[in-house]
Structure prediction request, 140 residues.
Amino acid sequence: MHEAVTEFLPYADFVKVTDDELEFITGLNDEKEGIKALLRYAARAKLIFVTRGGNGSAVYDREANSADYAAYPADVVDTTGAGDCFIGSIIWHLLNGEAELTVGGTEKAMNFAVRACACVISKKGGAPSMPSREEVEKLK
Prediction:
């Protein structure tokens, strides 16, 4: 594992990585094995979120429970900001009591996040493409 990353993992309540970042950090190209390795370093993390671009996303817990979410269909214009939008959506739901740090407790947040990301990637730019809650909720 890379020291610059692993130095902070023990302090994280949850971790969000892309599939490429997971492989880079752990040196493993199998996602489930990579999650196990990451959790050894992220001793207090309850959840690991993995984004896979057009291949969707997943959430894993320490007991090897997981849930996969398909990417919401969108015409890709620019992926800048998609990861920030994803984790921002999760954090917003957690802070507003609409999610819990369990695989099942993040279902609403994950469904919102994948739709929010579809809004972001269908526009040019990072910050200018961030959708409003109303815009995301129109996508069902």
Summary: The chain has a mean pLDDT of 94. The helical segments are 3-6, 19-26, 31-41, 82-95, 107-121, 133-137. The domain at 3-137 is CATH 3.40.1190.20 (UDP-N-acetylmuramoyl-L-alanine:D-glutamate ligase).
